[in-house]
Amino acid sequence: MAREKKPVHKVQMTEGKRNIIRHLLEEYDIETATDIQEALKDLLGGTIKEMMEAEMDNHLGYEKSERSDSDDYRNGYKSKRINSSYGNMDIQVPQDRKSTFEPQIVKKRQKDISDIDQKIISMYAKGMTTRQISDIINDIYGFEPSEGFISDVTDKILPQIEDWQNRPLNEVYPIVYIDAIHYSVREEGVIRKLAAYYVILGINTSGMKEVLTINVGDNESSKYWLSVLNELKNRGVKDILVLCADGLTGIKEAIGAAFPKTEYQRCIVHMVRNTLKYVPDKDRKAFATDLKTIYHAADEKKALEALDRVTAKWVPKYPNSMKRWNDNWDCISPIFKFSSTVRKVIYTTNAIESLNAVYRKLNRQRSVFPSDTALLKALYLSTFEATKKWTVTIRNWGQVYGELSIMYEGRLPE
Fold it and tell me: Is 394 exposed, middle or buried (0-12, 13-18, 19+ CB in 10 A)?
């Protein structure tokens, strides 16, 4: 059956519209699209003034041409420059003698009547610098917003960040990831190159990814991580089955104190990366293939056998390469009790890696952030740009949930 064509909706050119266009052409010397915008800009200014005049009439209780015994009356105009979708423009704001007139069409302290705020926030979310944003706004609207103006606009989201950071969380998260990326932040004229953000990403009981919180700081310790995990508890989290993270200083002790029943799983992706970091290209592929025999082993016994083989093969050439695997085996081994389906969810960390790709883009576009607040704003906005696409559950979540329910009996909702 042929698909029915949707009707094409055309703008109807009424006689009233034709008259407006005719008068526009008579009044203005229009030859280009730019001329049209200038004419519309002029008409916008005139329309705003007329609407303000009507507001003043309503405020005083009588029209401009009428006499009145009121002790308040019109007192001329005050020029005001505003930003519009057609660029900068000057408008004349009516004044009254008592200065009690509050215009609504363009409020007293309002200097922008366009959608520039949302455009600035959108560009900030994509990692653009204030210089880049300023240049684009200048190209589109014909005025160059200052760094302070852009900062003021983006500061409007700070209350939203605070609300988001304090929102209630679910009682149970089957899997939680913690990861970090380092940024450079300027503080009192000095650039700190070790400023880090820590993102905590949870998989909820419905199998949906959820960023639980973002923290900016550079003070890794068991005390620091305990305060972060206690914050999650204070927001309603009662249990986490598996927490996957790299070897963050103090994280293991903090997990034990805050969530004693939670299993700490070292991130396999980070383990592999750290092992291969100082291995030359000529050996990296072969070494990576051998490491795979460890974390793809059918059970822990076979994994330990693979660990011994890989250690014997590579340690003579790279003495410290396998030290982390041996030292941290108690935090690596939990995955071996799961099927390959569950392991993929836990150790491949695709969920957090896709999010990190968005955050790394910020590093490429901004070499230095002017403050911790600027970094937090950029991270928050980038997070919401990324999470717009999170509309489906984790792959094979039904099977994963069933297996976790058996392994951690009584800790997940039926």
Answer: buried
Partners of 265 in the beta sheet? 244
Per the structure block, which two tokens stand in for 88? 């900068």
CA distance 298 to 106: 69
- Between 64 and 77, the more confident residue is 77
Alpha-carbon gap, residue 184 to 376, rounded angstroms: 13
Count of positions (residues) in the chain = 414
For 238-269, write each residue's pLDDT tens digit. 999 999 988 888 899 999 999 999 999 998 88
Q: Residue 369: is it exposed, middle or buried by C-beta count within 10 angstroms (0-12/13-18/19+)?
A: buried
- The SS3 of residue 200 is strand
How many other C-beta atoms are found inside a 10 Å radius of the C-beta of residue 130?
A: 21
Contact 242, 174 (CB under 8 A): yes
Distance CA 351, CA 202 (A): 9
- Checking if the pLDDT of 5 tops 60, the result is no
* Phi–psi pair at 115, nearest 5 degrees: -100, 30
Q: Rounded to whole angstroms, what are the CA distances from 275 to 121, 229, 270?
A: 40, 28, 8
- Which residue, among 48, 49, 56, 50, has the nearest Cα to 101 in the 3D structure? 56
Confidence at 9, pLDDT banded by 50, 70, 90: very low
Start-to-end CA span in the chain (Å): 46
| Lookup: tokens for 409 | 């009996």
CA angle 169, 362, 200 (to 5 degrees): 20
Q: Which amino acid is at 75?
A: N
Residues ≥6 apart with Cβ < 8 Å to 304: 329
- Cα 412 to Cα 20, 97, 127, 232, 233: the distances in Å are 67, 69, 38, 18, 17
Torsion angles phi and psi, residue 247, rounded to 5:
-80, 60
**pLDDT exceeds cutoff 80 at 39:** no
Full-model pTM: 0.69
User: Token pair 């929102």 is at which residue?
Assistant: 167
Convert the pLDDT of each residue in 165-207 to its tens digit.
899 999 999 999 988 877 878 777 777 765 567 889 999 999 9
Sequence letter at residue 183 = Y
- Tokens for 67? 């006499």
Q: What is the pLDDT of residues 344-386, one digit of tens each?
A: 888 756 667 778 777 777 767 677 777 778 888 888 888 887 8
Between the alpha carbon of residue 249 and those of residues 220, 222, 225, 254, 280, the distances in Å are 6, 7, 9, 10, 28
